[in-house]
Design a protein that fits this description.
Elements lengths: L3 H17 L7 H5 L3 H10 L25 H9 L7 H26 L6 H7 L5 H6 L6 H16 L3 H12 L8 H11 L3 H6 L5 H14 L4 H9 L9 H7 L6 H17 L5 H14 L7 H4 L4 H7 L2 H4 L8 H15 L7 H11 L1
Length: 361
């Protein structure tokens, strides 16, 4: 097998196309899935948001769009060139490209770090697990780009290219805010090696986020607009851990509590299983600790940055057993049934989509 990394990328591409299959005659479902429309609007406006923006019916202030960091929208804007100016096509193209790239990089990471005896099989499973990832590597979302940058940072670290590591961290921090946590993480990696020069380089990755916030200050008059909405108005981060779990334990939908409990346990055990692989254990442990303070019902999405390691590598000794391959048809059935049913449930209102289409012209 000459290029197993390309096989992994091809499987990811086909897995994404399969998500699209029921909506080939109604692509609006794919275009309207949250948060794709928000990213498209940022790609068009670059945060210069009028008071009568298309999403005003949702009661969102103009500064809300600061919550969508710029690297993924900028990629969408670049992709409008081959897409003939169509922002929605460009959005899906940006997602597909970064998803395929993430799969290729994940395979290479598994090989370079010797994380599995069967890296191709884990890279194939990466296209389908967890089910939430099956959705988010197919719609308008920044997670595939973020994982590309995370995998790239680890590969550059292994290759002893600190400037490339710093570049990946800069990109990650302006893709998703949790990318900021990578700065002290990799500083710690280099400090452990007593590589003080590389340690000193890593804080430069924060320049991207500082420039982003400076632009937010220019257009919104608020340097910390990102945090004022996410932490202040939306309350996505709480002061005490597991508050989401405790809240739903006394909620009318209390059965959801077991779902969140399962997430904490599955990802927690997978993270602990990475202990012999200290860099990846530290990465997953840091993100797991952060997620314990996240207060959002869609907690499975917030675990996606550690899913390739905590789920696939952490449980790799089980998942690579020959017997586990027989479960793949069930994984595909359940995953696609979930994706196809959930996609139309979480979409932007038709009136808002029409207003957005008008704003994009």
């Amino acid at each position: 097998m000459k290029r197993p990394d390309l096989i992994a990328g091809g499987v990811m591409f086909l897995a994404t196309l399969a998500v699209y299959f029921p909506y080939l005659g109604d692509a609006q479902v794919l275009f309207a899935y949250w948060d794709g429309p928000h990213y498209v609007y940022v790609a068009k406006t670059l945060y210069v948001t009028p008071a009568d923006h298309p999403f005003k019916s949702y009661g969102l202030p103009a500064s809300y769009f600061a919550c969508h960091l710029p690297l993924y929208p900028l990629l969408i804007r670049v992709m409008t060139v081959p897409a003939g100016g169509d922002y929605f096509t460009a959005m899906l193209a940006a997602t597909i490209i970064t998803s395929v790239a993430a799969s290729v990089l994940f395979y290479r990471l598994l090989v370079v770090f010797e994380l599995s005896e069967n890296p191709l099989w884990l890279a194939i499973l990466f296209a389908f697990l967890p089910p939430r990832w099956l959705i988010y590597h197919s719609v308008g979302a920044s997670e595939p780009l973020f994982l590309c940058l995370v995998f790239g940072a680890f590969l550059a670290f292994k290759a002893e290219r600190p400037w490339m590591v710093m570049g990946c961290l800069l990109g990650a921090s302006i893709t998703r805010i949790t990318g900021l946590m990578l700065l002290p993480l990799f500083m710690g990696f280099y400090a452990w090696r007593r590589d003080w020069r590389s340690t000193a380089i890593m804080p430069l990755a924060g320049i991207g986020l500082l420039l982003t916030f400076a632009w937010h200050a220019q257009v919104y008059g608020d340097f910390l607009a990102y945090f004022h909405y996410n932490v202040g108005q939306a309350g996505l981060v709480r002061a005490t851990p597991f508050e989401l779990f405790r809240t739903y334990a006394s909620h009318p939908e209390f059965a959801v509590t077991e779902y969140h409990l399962g997430l904490y346990l599955v990802y927690g055990i997978g993270t602990l299983a990475l202990w012999p692989r200290r860099e990846f254990f530290a990465y997953c442990a840091l993100f797991f600790a952060f997620n314990c303070f996240v207060f959002h019902v869609d907690s499975s999405r917030y675990f996606l940055p550690i899913a390739p390691f905590a789920l696939l590598v952490g449980y790799g000794p089980i998942l690579t057993r020959p017997a586990c391959r027989w479960i793949l048809p069930l994984v595909l059935y359940l995953g696609y049934f979930y994706a196809w049913k959930f996609l139309p449930f979480n979409i932007c209102a038709p009136d808002t989509m029409r207003a957005l289409a008008q704003a994009l012209r």
